[in-house]
Design brief:
By secondary structure, the chain is mainly α. It has ten helices and no strands. It has helices spanning 6-16, 23-37, 41-54, 59-71, 75-87, 106-118, 122-135, 140-152, 156-171, 179-200.
Length: 202
């Protein structure tokens, strides 16, 4: 039909822009997001490497690079990307396009907590989850992750408090669910996570 693929069009635009044009970083991010939406991880990784070579502190590119590495099972590379988000400041040109600053805050703390927890670094995982929860106490998935850690360590009193918070948040969403159903959903989610962790450990 004569239409040009969005990624191809963006790639052509990238080639035509001067090397110092601040729009280039936004185009790299747009190409990467388009490729990730199609699950084209190898090609997305190629553009991520190129983009980060020019813009090593770019918020969107670092977040995407960490997510791709995590999906590929390279936890060390994923942690390196995510950790850079909390140890460096965003470039001024970051703000020329859409940037979610939570990516450099509670969201990346959660990602780092998951990685540390999977690697058996429980103390670091707890520190990241606590930091994330102090910033975003109403994020249910943070409480779920933290609850998994407490469950693994048999810290029953703290687990009860965390699950109570999780129950309250679910009930406040407005869904007409009885408390028993909410608790069963939470228990099922935690049980599934435990089974996945056991399978990944062999």
């Amino acid at each position: 039909d004569g239409s040009v693929d969005a990624c191809e069009w963006l790639s052509r635009a990238l080639d035509r822009l001067a090397s110092g044009d601040p729009l280039r970083r936004q185009i790299y991010a747009a190409i990467v997001n388009a490729l990730l939406s199609r699950r084209q991880l190898p090609k997305a990784s190629q553009y991520l490497r190129e983009g980060l070579a020019f813009y090593p502190n770019d918020t969107n590119l670092l977040d995407a690079a960490g997510s791709v590495a995590f999906e590929e099972g390279d936890l060390e590379r994923a942690e390196s990307c995510f950790r850079k988000l909390i140890t460096t400041l965003p470039d001024a040109d970051d703000f020329l396009g859409p940037v979610d600053l939570a990516v450099r805050g509670w969201r990346v703390r959660h990602n780092l907590a998951v990685i540390c927890f999977r690697q058996g670094r429980a103390d670091e995982a707890e520190a990241h989850w606590r930091a994330a929860l102090s910033e975003k106490p109403d994020a249910a998935h943070l409480w779920q992750g933290f609850s998994e850690l407490l469950l693994a360590q048999a810290r029953w009193d703290e687990l009860g408090d965390a699950l109570a918070r999780l129950e309250t948040m679910i009930l406040m969403t407005g869904y007409d669910l009885p408390l028993r159903a909410v608790r069963e959903q939470i228990a099922a989610a935690l049980d599934l996570v435990i089974q996945v962790e056991r399978m990944s450990d062999g």
